[in-house]
Design goal:
The complex is a heterodimer of chains A (130) and B (338). With 130 residues, chain A is α+β, with helices and mostly antiparallel strands. Chain A has two helices and seven strands, in the order E-E-H-E-E-E-E-E-H. Chain B is an alpha/beta fold and 338 residues long. Chain B is built from 13 helices and nine strands. In chain B, helix 3 runs parallel beside helix 4, helix 8 crosses helix 9 (215-226) and helix 12 packs across helix 13. The chains are: A alpha+beta (130), B alpha/beta (338).
Chain lengths: 130, 338
């Protein structure tokens, strides 16, 4: 599958996710694969169609038998798009399942525990116990 | 009994009717997700990771009622997202109650005291409050300090107003059986009708991937929690499901038992996995390749799952579908009182 350089407006690629990458499938198998990846992706994607137009939104479903995509544009109602009209897909939105919220929370809790330990230490020193 | 007799009778007669009609696959609880937006971002939740424009979408009351009619299950659980964020949640609930559906409105309770006046007590309506343990355990699991105290206050107020209230607890790796037992005591002391408890499902999209329970650890944990259990505990779960969680009985998943409807349509195959969406409930039931799901299928995504939305329907079906299952249920009710 052809991996095209990221577009200027897309977020920086993140290791372990497709965020920021563009795929231009060369055949039907590659097309199905990139559509499945976009379906699993928890961010917006930009689909470039064969007429050269581009549409950004969330790919919510795909039907491999009917060869259609269900797609929620950022500012409109759901559209069905034929597989055959897809030229490339850019993972243009932030991957909302990148795990950062949990890391941030644990870091905050660790900071709080450290601050509490420091406070207790200072209190113990003040009481002459350390 | 934790559950009112009218609800027991409705569910029993519904299941027996399905059996008499020879229906092998039937829904028990509709999982209705009217929105994905939440006011928390819990570590073990894989439901809310969407772009903003998707989080801003809502099912209308009419769509919710149509889904309940189409599905036909006697119970409707409304998770999300946080349902109380939906500006028409009171209408959605009222319409479902008018259809005599037993509604479980799942909420983290952060908005409950502010919105409680929108609802009327009814035997058809239960608030299912998300509580993942004692104060520190709960606040850590939901990634926000202070939520436990708000939820406890909301439980007190909601019970005082005459509503049915249950708690809904998800347990993860590292849960301490002693603390969980103390938590159950605290919740029963608040006057809740019953406890719901389940191991968490290992969502690919959840922020914390380290804390999901493997199958063997799940049965070890639940055996410790439920051994010599306090007779005051009331569970809003089938006794057979509690036996399953302790590894005392083997079940496979019933993925069609809790069908899920949300802004994308009918979710294939279950509440937890997202392999695609169908336009109708009929299409979901007829087009899903059910043999590819559940522990026995070998599907790796199903191997460690022991979550109530897949195994509670199996447990209920076993109660009415086998002498052993029925006998196990009767024995449990006689031993523990429900």
């Amino acid at each position: 599958m052809t991996h095209v350089n990221q577009a200027s407006h897309t977020p920086k690629p993140r290791p372990g996710t497709f965020q920021g990458r563009t795929f231009a499938p060369a055949n039907d198998d590659e097309l199905s694969e990139v559509i499945n990846r976009a379906f699993d992706y928890r961010g917006d994607v930009t689909i470039t169609l064969d007429d050269g137009s581009a549409i950004e939104g969330y790919l919510s479903n795909r039907d491999a038998r009917a060869r259609t995509i269900e797609f929620f544009p950022r500012d409109g109602d759901m559209k069905r798009i034929a597989y055959a009209s897809v030229r490339s897909i850019t993972f243009s939105g932030q991957d909302t399942a990148d795990g950062k919220s949990w890391e941030n929370w644990m870091a905050k809790k660790a900071d709080q525990r450290k601050a509490e330990a420091d406070r207790l230490r200072q209190e113990a020193i003040a009481r002459g116990e350390l | 009994m934790a559950v009112p007799l009218s609800q027991v009778w409705t569910v029993t007669s519904y299941v027996l009717k399905q059996k008499l009609l020879g229906r092998r696959r039937y829904p028990l609880v509709l999982m209705l997700e009217p929105l994905f937006r939440c006011n928390l971002a819990c570590a073990g939740c894989g439901k809310i990771q969407y772009p903003d424009h998707i989080l801003n979408k809502r099912l209308s009351p009419e769509q919710c009622w149509a889904a309940a009619d189409e599905c036909g299950a006697p119970m409707v659980s409304i998770p999300g997202g946080e349902p109380l964020i939906h500006s028409e949640i009171d209408q959605i609930v009222a319409g479902l109650v008018a259809r005599k559906k037993y509604v479980y409105l799942c909420t983290n309770a952060l908005l409950l005291n502010r919105k409680i006046d929108l609802f009327k007590p009814s035997p058809f309506l239960s608030f299912s409050i998300h509580m993942d343990g004692l104060k520190d355990d709960h606040d850590t699991a939901v990634c926000r300090d202070g939520t436990y105290e708000i939820a406890v206050e909301a439980i007190r107020e909601t019970v005082k107003r005459g509503f049915r209230v249950t708690t809904n607890t998800t347990l993860f790796e590292g849960a301490d059986p002693v603390r969980v037992r103390a938590f159950f005591n605290e919740m029963m002391a608040l006057g809740v009708e019953g406890l719901m408890v389940s191991p968490g499902y290992s969502y690919d999209k959840a922020p914390d991937q380290q804390s999901f329970l493997k199958r063997e650890r799940t049965t070890q944990l639940f055996s410790k929690i439920l051994e010599r259990r306090d007779r005051s505990w009331r569970f809003n779960l089938s006794p057979n499901f509690l036996e399953f969680l302790q590894g005392k009985v083997e079940y496979d998943c019933t993925p069609w038992g809790n069908p899920t409807y949300n802004i994308f349509g009918w979710q294939k195959p279950c509440y937890l996995l997202q392999d695609g969406y169908c336009k109708s409930f009929k299409e979901l039931m007829e087009s899903t390749e059910w043999q590819n799901y559940g522990h026995e299928s070998g599907n790796p995504k199903c191997q460690d799952c022991m979550v109530h939305c897949g195994f509670e329907p199996t447990s209920v079906d076993d109660t009415f579908g086998s002498v052993r299952g029925f006998a196990r249920t009767v024995k449990s009710v006689l031993t523990y009182g429900g």
